[in-house]
Amino acid sequence: MARSKPNILVTGTPGVGKTTFCEALAGSTQLQHLEVSKMVREKRLYKEWDDELDCSIFDEEMVYDALEPLLEAGGCLIDFHSSAFLDDGLLDLVVVLRADTSTLYDRLERRHYPESKVKQNVEAEIFQTCLDEAREAFEETELAIWELPHDTEEHMQEALERVQEFAQSYTPG
């Protein structure tokens, strides 16, 4: 059965603004915001805990199984830092949000992340880890991957308009 609404993955390094972006986009598109990190915590979709970074190490299979029925129905905004475990057949667009490293550093500091976690995430942004993961995961597909800056309010508005246009013009199949 074809989905009547698109599924859009919004990915990027922690701190680039995925959740802020998805909350704004959900309000203007009637798409359901799926904050996967929150889902992992609440439904315990992990098997390990990293004490040094103070975070769970999610179980790809458990997360996929929780997301699959929602994605099959369509109309989802998937907010997560990882994309490799998702099925391209259930996605219609991948948006990789990017941030300047000084902006990212400030955002992570405001979250009171441990210095090791701040450093790891800033390095991930420098080395474009999330962008490369998305490109590699979907390189053999027709799935569009948009790299969009998300440092300023102006960047956010431009990105929102572009993705809103995609969602509004979506046609199944």
Description of the molecule:
This protein has 173 residues and is an alpha/beta fold. It has a single domain (8-169), classed as Rossmann fold (3-Layer(aba) Sandwich). Helices cover 47% and strands 19% of the residues. It contains seven helices and seven strands, in the order βαβαββαββαααβα. A five-stranded parallel sheet has the order 2-5-1-6-7, sandwiched between helices. Strand 3 (46-50) and strand 4 form a beta hairpin. The chain is globular. The mean pLDDT is 95.
Task: Summarize the model shown.
With 173 residues, the chain is an alpha/beta fold. It is built from 7 helices and 7 strands, in the order βαβαββαββαααβα.
Mean pLDDT: 95
Strand order of the largest sheet: 2-5-1-6-7
Q: With helices defined by DSSP (H or I, 4 residues minimum), what is the helix count?
A: 7
What overall geometry do the principal axes of the alpha carbons give? globular
Integer tally of domains:
1
What Rg is obtained from the alpha carbons, in whole angstroms?
Answer: 16 Å
Number of strands: 7
CATH topology (fold) name: Rossmann fold
CATH architecture: 3-Layer(aba) Sandwich
Distance between the termini: 10 Å
Report the sheet with the most strands, covering strand number, pairing sense and barrel closure: 5 strands, parallel
Instruction: Output the helix-strand order.
Output: EHEHEEHEEHHHEH
The helix-and-strand class reads alpha/beta
Q: Enumerate the spans where pLDDT stays under 50 for 5 or more consecutive residues.
A: none
- CATH homologous superfamily grouping: P-loop containing nucleotide triphosphate hydrolases
Strand content: 15-25%
